[in-house]
């Protein structure tokens, strides 16, 4: 291969519990994966086929700071489970999908809701609302060997000490093995891919100076300040 004509971009990394870092290849995000959240966004909570959008790998940010983005007056928090893959492939059976998981973490899908809403009305992609810089605050990844697979467990988000979001991972409409299997029918998954697994009800706006505290049972806490 020829030498690059510009400096090669760095591969985004997520710190891992106990040292080391996980290199990120792609970021897949499932939409409306908790029934109560589907309702609050104006949709039928019945088990419709899953749908996904993407963030950019460098949107994931472990710094603990979220810069309030430009061109928006309505930025919302969404707490989510992050699933990190150690391997992949195509047409992965549900029965073996969890074999591809390296570990789990806590993340936030920060969303320019006003811009996302405009895109929805026009039938356009969501990236202008979802893929803004540093819109994926993320905590350390925990290996499966330490946590086991997370099919249930409390997931919450507090803003300035006030409970905003609360649910349980067992309320996900599409479970982790199903998400992996479904995605692999349309994409070739690979080591370094991550999946943001959806958010419970209670999404809402944040302002500069707000402190968000996200928790998932078994994974500890992620604290992020809006700056």
TrEMBL record:
Mind telling me which SUPFAM superfamilies this protein's record contains? FAH
Which residues does the UniProt record annotate as the domain Fumarylacetoacetase-like C-terminal?
Answer: 27-227
Source taxonomy: Bacteria, Pseudomonadati, Pseudomonadota, Alphaproteobacteria, Rhodobacterales
Q: What protein does this entry describe?
A: Fumarylacetoacetase
Provide the GO MF annotations for this entry: acetylpyruvate hydrolase activity; metal ion binding
Keywords in alphabetical order: Metal-binding
Q: Name one Pfam family in it.
A: FAA_hydrolase
Transmembrane helix as UniProt keyword: no
